[in-house]
Amino acid sequence: MSKENWNIQFIKPCRFPEEEHRLLTPEYTLQSIARGRIVQINLDNCSIQRMEDLTEESTIEDVEAVGLLPLFEILQKGMVSLTCIGVNEMPDWRVKNAHAAYERFCRKFWPGHKDDKDATYREYNPECKERKVKFDELSDGARCVYGGAYVSIMQIQNIHHSYPDTTPENRFEIYLHSMIGLLGIVSGFELEIAKWAFWELNKKEINQLVPGVKQRRKDIRENFAKVKSDISKCREFAFDSAMDLHWLSGANLSEDLGHDIDINGTRLKLDNWVGTNDHKLYRISRDIHSTFLDNSTMKRLAITRERELESNLYWRNVDRTSKDILTYRYHAGYADIDELLAKIDKAVSYVEGDLIRKFDAVPA
Questions:
Q1: Which DSSP letter does residue 186 get?
Q2: For 334-343, what is each residue's pLDDT tens digit?
Q3: Backbone torsions φ then ψ of 356, nearest 5 degrees
Q4: Which residues sit opposite 261 in a β-bridge?
Q5: In terms of Cα–Cα distance, which of 277, 341, 310, 286 is closest to 145?
Q6: Rounded to an integer, what distance in angstroms lies between the CA atom of residue 87 and that of residue 248?
Q7: Which residues, 6 or more positions from 96, have their beta carbon under 8 angstroms from its beta carbon?
Q8: Which of 30, 37, 38, 207 has a CA positioned 20 to 30 A from the CA of residue 321?
Q9: Which residues, in sequence order, are CB contacts of 222 under 8 Å at separation 6+?
């Protein structure tokens, strides 16, 4: 595997409307400090797992071998804050080793760093042997944070199994109306994922796609829209997908809330990035990302539409449907987002129940 497809990549989830993909370099981190901001790299599960492959005896060559050399170089030459937020998607039994690997990496390969005195740590039960994280066993706060994305991905699964004979456009319309009914919220990123999830093509049509569209379709289906065959696989896939979506939206929300950090007695605003070795997520984020609007990272989404998509009947239909409905909702005024957790729990129960009935009805 080439280094480009192996090394850790850095995602800036929100960029300016006309801005190309932003690159994270040591020079960029130092320029941010001069502007009163500090780059915070939030490491996902994939990158922390790479750290678990290193030992006390590991060398720079070993760091390069596991694909973390770009991170090492930024830590040496730049000035950043680093978090191992990826442990939040790990089952309890894995957290202790993951934390230890992260601390060891920082101690060996980031000399002189200081722990944040305000840092928080995930609570976990090291005796718990559950192999996977279960959504309904998360805390109230965690269900609220990940719930919208979890419901969205589960509903995509549900529609695939519930409406196999309807048109792709109809499936998308069912998805859009059902998310409004279930949560009263429509996420732009998840809406874009749904468009790709319901786009049906045969092998010949796939092979005729331009490379960029073909790659994006493959990446999105792999990370967010792979149809699963039983309820436990659906739940596991939806949770992993929800975590991927949270890497991007959580970083944006943190900036909108104006989070800052104390660096040697000076409060610096956070400039949030995601560090990941998941190259599918990295490529997706280059083509679908938030843009600044009204001093917010959360109000507008930039999407990529090649000419062949703009002239494709399916894409014309789903883009028009989503635009018409979202424009109507905008002018009508959004309902208050109260009792969100109760809505999430009710939606999860409904969608999972629907899926369970579908799977139980299928002859073994």
A1: -
A2: 666 678 999 9
A3: -60, -40
A4: 268
A5: 341
A6: 16
A7: 124, 126
A8: 207
A9: 280
- If 0-12 CB within 10 Å is exposed, 13-18 middle and 19+ buried, where does residue 139 land? exposed
Mean pLDDT score, 167-184:
96
* pLDDT, mean over the chain: 89
45-71 tens-digit pLDDT = 999 999 999 999 999 999 999 999 999
**Whether the Cβ atoms of residue 276 and residue 256 lie closer than 8 Å to each other:** no
Count, residues in the chain: 364
Nearest to 225 by CA among 250, 209, 245, 202: 245
Asked if pLDDT for residue 209 goes beyond 70, the answer is yes
The DSSP code for 229 is S
Which residues are CB-contacts of 83 (< 8 A; sequence separation ≥ 6)? 40, 41, 42, 43
Cα dihedral value 23, 28, 33, 34, nearest 10: -130
Q: Which amino acid is at 101?
A: A
Helices assigned H by DSSP within 163-306? 168-183, 188-197, 203-207, 211-224, 231-256, 279-287
pTM for the complete prediction?
0.89
Q: What is the DSSP string of 65-134?
A: HTT-HHHHHHHHHS-EEEE-GGGGGS-HHHHHHHHHHHHHHHHHHSTT----TT-------TT---SS--
Pick from 302, 299, 297, 303: nearest CA to 14:
297
Q: 6, 42, 37, 24: which is closest to 247 by C-alpha?
A: 42
